[in-house]
Amino acid sequence: MIAVERLTVAFGAVYALREVSLRAETGKITAVLGANGAGKTTLLRTISGLVAPQSGTVSLDERVLTRRRPEDIARLGVGHVPEGRGVIAEFTVEENLRLGAIVAKVPLEEGLAQQYEAFPVLGQRRKQHAAKLSGGERQMLAMARALIARPSVLLLDEPSLGLAPLVTAQLMATVAELCATKDLTVVLVEQNASSALRIAHHAVVLNVGSVVADAPAEVVAADERLRQYYLGMVE
Amino acid sequence: MDSFLTSRVVTDVLSGLTNGAIYGLVALSLVLVWRATRVLNFAQGAMPMFATYLGMGLLSYDWPYWVCVGVSLVAAFAIGAVTERVLVRPLYGKPEINPIVVMVGYLIILEAFAAAIWSTTPRSLPAPFSPIDWKLAGQPVGLSPFSLFEVVTALVVMGAIVGLFRFTRIGLQLRASALAPEVSRLLGVRVGRMLTLGWMLSTAVGAVTAILVASNFFTGLTPQLMDGIFAFGFIAAAVGGLDSPVGAVASGIALGVVLQFVGDYLNSNAIILVALGILIVSLMVRPNGLLTRSAARRV
Amino acid sequence: MSAVARRGAVALGGLVVAVALGFALAPRTSDAVAVAAVAAVAAVGGFVGSLPTVRAEHPALARAMLTVVLVDLVVFATAFLSVPTDFNLATGAGMAIVLLGLSFLTGASGQISIGNGAFMGVGAFATAIWANHHATTPIVVTLLISVAVGALFGLLLGLPATRLRGPYLAGMTLAFAVAFPAILSSFNSWTGGDSGLQLPNSVTAPPWLVGLFHAGTPTLTTDTLWLTDVVMVATGVAFFFMANLFASRTGRAMRLVRDNDVAAELVGVALPRTRVIAFVISAAYAALGGALWTLLNNSVSPATYGFALSITILAVIVIGGIGTISGAIIGGVVYAYSTNVIAWFVARTGLNPQGNLASQLNGIIFGALLIVTMMFSPLGIAGTIRHLRQRRALARERR
Q: Assuming Cys at both sites, which of A218, B27, C243, C281 could form a disulfide with B252, CB separation 3.0 to 4.6 Å?
């Protein structure tokens, strides 16, 4: 479980997050929604230690993550698939996965075999440079690279960005399945609110750095006001 | 009697390979640091020079040769690590001339300290193998046991570095840290340590080079030992591409051979002029090096 | 009282006092006339240059007047200094010109050169070679030819700079500095090999100057004085041009290139051309400095223009303040007097002056200053002074 308590982040005079609190339960998908600039990416970057908060804390189960370095947070079992996927284009598919397995406790071959089984397309292209992959394949690779370390938390930043609707739907199904079978805590940041709400258990809506809604996914999905003003979902 | 092996061409190629191996090693050490930290290290010659004084200086206390070599390498690792942590780390993200100036300042200090401690008089280092050319029918062939040792050492070091990068976990992390530091940190790679390690490796490669250069009968060990060699190494690295270890080594060797012919058929002054010309022309044709895939500069 | 009247009164008053003092104290009428001339130039230049309308509407004229006054006063001062002091000053002034070029290169384009000692050598040898083949050419023409040769070399090396980023260019200039001695010895018959060249006839003081000081007997002192003043005037001209360049459209375009070359390209700065121009100007300035050194020394030696000089040039401009005009002046002074200061320091601490440490102190101090400057105050002494003044101005405002 990830617990965020009264988190405030500022870049100079500009506040990116103001007193944000939320909980992402173990084995559940928590969607973080909101418009561009709402502070979603900053939230994930603060959880994984890339951004230092002004005040507030982030904790994983009973452990406080705040003020730890990103590499140490990763080693505590937080997998972060960054915005734009962060696949290393100069590396082959397998090299990307090997890099993800640096902190894994299981043997490399076992981890690779598992990921190739979960994402067969990666297995077929293991010797290819990641630069040659399609957008959807890159997203698979980025997720597989995070999962190979067997994290207990998976932070996903805009996984649907730039993907076709069909590919997005497949991706969301994969996320839902992973969460259910591996008892993973998933924090899913999305602008594409409708596809995120379809698989999420819980949803938090951010607006200009503040939480405006924090409720079960179906409640958020049914709230007309939220849909119109913050999620840009107009029928 | 003139045999093929003692002909002028073959002799030139063989001596050129020896010099080229040295240029390639210097180029390789520059590339290691450039890839990891985007710093062109102008003290790349001076740091190993200092390490070599520290290690090989023990010869005068009757330490065995190979132990002194080992101490030099350890000293190089230490100098590389301390330099990265203390001098280079505060410079990341600063305008690109800042690291250039700081490393030039470091070069001045290291050479001045070396001269203050050990004086500017050249110290001759014993060559571990005979530096006298093998002879064929009374004619020197352009290759001595020592120069063969130089070439082999260079190849082994290059092979070891390339192997380290390609096939090991550490190598994977070194490359990832250079290419995508933030993503690497998210995956648990200790990027700071990797950058330090890059500088350590680079300085150690430099120390091997400095020992080889200083063992040459004609030069000996001096504080300015690496100034000229650095220029050739930089030319090799720039021509081959500062991002490509293999390119740097290959162009170093090619440069050595070409310049040997220039020196033999023209004169010794022409060597550096031709090298400068090669640099200018190649940079005009391919600013990112002849042997790298050209990548658009990120906006 | 209006601003014009006030300044006029100050200028006139100063002139009267100077002339009166000159006629009262100077031993001979000719000396007093010289004092009066210097004072008149200073008064007129200072008056015109400080007028608010001139400063606002004709900044170039104001800068010219300021330069005239400064050179006028320095030239006057050199007459009262010892020969070694004059020589040191002139050497420092020649260096200041070189630094000015390098400062412009970095300040305006964000590039850096580690090879300006070699460009200096180009100018130094061009002067000596020309003088040896055409002994009758006037000094000014010889200097201009040397500057042109320097610019040509700058163009040759600067052409790749159109496409290069900082470290590549820096490395290339370093290679040039390392190669320069070989270039010199490749053209042995022209450059005189290891021993260098002597000027065929040394620059001598004109009769009126000799007459002014020694009633008709030319001596070494008047020659040194004359040379010093020639260098000072050249330095003044160089500074005047540079000050205008910094303020000009080109200068602004170059600063844009330095701050953000992508943005500069978007707003239509001809990026490659701007870079090359900056590089050529810095080479030309270096050549002028070297040419003046040749005149000063009456000879040129290849040993002067080795790699070490290039490094020293970089060190003093960074310490003075790279990218600023005042930094070049400070750097010139640092260069001229660092040897004396360090010798004094060595004498005070009781180090063996012939020992290893004492002889390397120069390098240790320069290297350390270079690193410390870049880490803590990248604009050097000039930047630190500017920063302190701004802080004081701010504090005054708050009060």
A: B27
Q: What is the pLDDT of residues C335-367, one digit of tens each?
A: 988 888 888 888 888 888 788 888 888 889 999
In a domain, B292, yes or no: no
Report yes or no on chains A and B touching (3+ CB pairs under 8 A): yes
Query: Mean pLDDT of successive 10-residue segments in chain A (235 residues)?
Result: 92 89 92 88 94 93 91 94 90 94 88 90 92 90 92 92 87 88 90 88 91 90 82 65
Q: Chain C: nearest CA to B94, how far in angstroms?
A: 10
pLDDT of residue C325: 86
Residue C305: DSSP 8-state: G
Give domain status of residue B126, yes or no. Answer: no
CA distance C139 to C101: 21
- pLDDT surpasses 80 at C255: no
Report yes or no on A165 lying in a domain.
yes
Query: Which fold would CATH assign to domain C83-337?
Result: ABC transporter involved in vitamin B12 uptake, BtuC (1.10.3470)
Domain tally for chain B? 1
Query: Considering the domain boundaries, does residue A127 fall inside one?
Result: no
Q: What angle do CA C172, C174, C175 make, to 5 degrees?
A: 65
Instruction: Test B188 with A86 for CB contact under 8 angstroms.
Output: no
- The pLDDT of residue B140 is above 70: yes
- Residue B275 is part of which domain span? 4-121+136-285
What pLDDT band is residue B297 in, cutting at 50, 70 and 90? very low
In angstroms, the Cα distances linking B290 to B40, B128, B274, C185, C368 are 18, 36, 17, 31, 37
- Nearest residue on chain B to A45, alpha-carbon basis: B186
- CATH value at residue B147: 1.10.3470
Contact at CB, B102 and C176, closer than 8 angstroms = no
Distances (CA, A) of B211 to B111, B123, B126, B220, B221: 16, 12, 10, 9, 8
Overall domain count for chain A: 1
Could you tell me if residue A115 is inside a domain? no
Of B100, B115, B275, the CB nearest to C112: B100
Q: Do A and C touch (≥3 CB pairs < 8 Å)?
A: no
Q: Which domain holds residue A219?
A: 2-81+151-229
Q: Assess contact for B181 and B191: CB atoms under 8 A.
A: yes
Domain ranges of chain C: 1-80, 83-337
In a domain, residue B78? The reply is yes
What residues of chain B lie within 8 A of the CB of A75, using their CB? 188
